Every structure is written in C-alpha cells, then in structure tokens.
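Input/output pair, single chain:
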Amino acid sequence: MTSQSVRIPFIASLFVIPAAFTVTILVSDSQKALEVNNYLFAATVLVQIVVLSQAFAARNVFSRVDPGHLTWTLIVAFLIVRLLVEGRLATLTFKIVNPPPDLLHASPLMFFYVVALRYVYTISDLLFVAALITTIRTYKSTGLKFELLGRDYVYMAILWAIPVVTFIFRSNLGLAGIIAADQYIATYRLVAVFVGALIASLCVAVRRYALQMKGGSIARVWNTVVVAGTVRAASFLALATLSKVWAPGARMMEQYLLWVFAGCWLLAAIYQREVLPRTGATSGLPRFSNRDE
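Output:
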C-alpha cells in the first residue's frame, strides 16, 4: 500500500460522500440519510483497522532502542484502544445492544456500557498525547533550540477557538449524534473537544520542530496528523452548531469529519513508513548536513 494509491481515492471520497448524502436527502427522508450515515461509520471503522496495520508497519521501521519506536508504540496503543471503543459504538449504532430511552432506568451494567465506556476514547487520546510528548522530547534531546513561529500561535488560537465555540453552544451537544443522544453525552463531548484541541496544538509544535530540522518529509507526516486532529475536534463543533437547526446534517457532518480523520491517519502512517527508508534516519528525524559542505 502506497500513499499515492490511497490519496487519490480518499480525495475522491471527499466529494462523493457529500453528494451521496445530498441525493439521499433530496429523494428520500431523514431515516434513509441516517442509514447512509451508519454505512459511513462502518466504513470509517474499517479504514481505522487498516490504519492500525499501517501504524504497526511504521513502528517496525524503528529499532527498539530508537525513540521513534516508543512514539509509534504509543500511537499503535492509541489506535487499538480507539478501535475497541468503536466496536462498542458499533453495537449501539446497529442495535446489537439496545439501551432504554432513559438511561436513568437502565441497569448499572448498561449504564456503564453506554455512558462510562465512552470515556475510553479519552484514554486513547491521552495515549496519543503521550506519543506527542515523547516526540517533542526526542527533538529537544538534540540540544538544538526549537522555537514556535507567530503563525504557529495563530494556528493554535484557531484550534482553541473550536472548543470555545463548542462550549458556547454546549446546550446543543446532546441533540444529535450517530446514536440516540442521552443527557450525559454533552459532558463527554466537551471533554473530547478540549482534549482534541490540545492534541492538535501539540501536533502543530511537532510539525514546526520537524520543519526547523529541515525535515520536509517528516513534517508532511505531522501536517497530516494536524489535519486529523483538527477535523476530529471540528466534528464536535459541527454537532454543537448544527444539531438544533438541522439534525440530519449535523450527524452527517460529524461522521464525514471522522471519515477525514481516519483517512488522514492512514496517509500519515503510510508517509511515516515511506519516508524513513529514504532519509535513513533511525529516529525518524532527518540528518543534518555539515555547515561546511
């Protein structure tokens, strides 16, 4: 699997999916649109399985003593935990598990399954935060001085605007989603969007450090991860701003952005796997040239 073989169909899907949803809305009803949404969710989960296989391959290009091996081990753990909780969501989406409409009357086990286990997504996010911190420490261990530029702070300000606006419209966070919303989901979504902004901000920093080491190919990996983190955070913003005025559109936009999230992660893992054999860098950082050369 190469980045070229994935990139073209992925870009095409970014146009095909909205077109399919629009046609479904025009010729059918919101129930059919929800079915399209569910199919897109299933496809997103399948892509994430492929992402995991590519992340394993990316990790395997590093030696065990290399910091990059630890970074990608944490990324693999992030993806595994995320896939496990996506399996839980699939059982709810496709009615394999049917919680009662009011979770206040659910059994303790059902409440735990529906409400508590959604925070496993947050655990997976924290694993990725750990991977980013490991990467930043790897760069700083070179002893070089790394600095963020003004534009990086602008990017971060835009990223942090996403959770702020989501918080302003937090009353709408429980109105729509891929499964029937409950009175507890808004709190989770607020936690997730703030953690998502943190992740995307750290990715901006890693991207800058890679560029300062003249690692354009490595920076491409992190550029793609920045997009993945941003669109995932934006999926909660879409729910917050659209759910009240157009619930089917809010659900579709959420899942569409998560599809972009999965596709970007697939490309990032392939880019990482492809770039190291070219650079010959054991740590995933490009080599410096001698200033006198």
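Residues 6 and 12 are 10 Å apart (CA to CA). Residues 278-293 have pLDDT under 50 and may be disordered.
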